[in-house]
Amino acid sequence: MIPNPIRKVLSTMAARQVRALLMGGQACVFYGAVEFSRDADLLILADPGNLERLAQALTDLQAVCIAVPPFQPHYLERGHGVHFRCAHPEAARLRIDLLARQRGLDEFSAVWERRTTISDRDGTVYELLSLPDLVLSKKTQRDKDWPVIRRLLEADYQARHAHADEAAFRFWLREMRTPELLVQLAEQHGALTRGLVPERRLLQAALVGDEVGVTAGLLMEENHERELDREYWRPLKAELVELRHSR
User: Fold this and answer.
1) Regions of the chain with pLDDT less than 50
2) Predicted model pTM
């Protein structure tokens, strides 16, 4: 269940026809990997019309920009997050974090086409990142994100594996972070697994039941993604420091 303050934010975005996708911890809750979060993290389309509708929605929520950078298109387009605090009684003190770009994700139009849509009892429609895109968005340098990815994939597998199609098994073989499940998948879907080895080398260890080798491969993957994320954010963080000093 989406908490009431988050629902207020999402329903306001929907009422203003803002193209925005829920991501972060609150999206993880929906997909079955419980992650405590007081924030609403949104991936947004940063074109003029959508930003105008977004500004109207933020006004409705009595939201004020609380940090650098300011709410300007070029900061969003460069990959910065822009942060707001709500004063509306139904979302009081809730923080909204906006991003127009996320490392590892496609352009917004493609991500929007893959979105997950849910409806509330009153018919309000909420839009979330698809599970594959949410997994990609969680591949960061932060320690807390990697256990969440594992829980997201385990929950998805448990919910769908009995009636899953080949696309689902491909997804799990590409992204699963649980060694015993990867070995099990490789045993059950050997041909599919062998075909994916060139893009995920640790699947070779899974094919021979080597959980230790799979675990080592997972750690190498994680360290690689952490470093890519550090490199992505390094110039953006330097720019934020300059902005703070200029203020």
Assistant:
1) none
2) 0.93
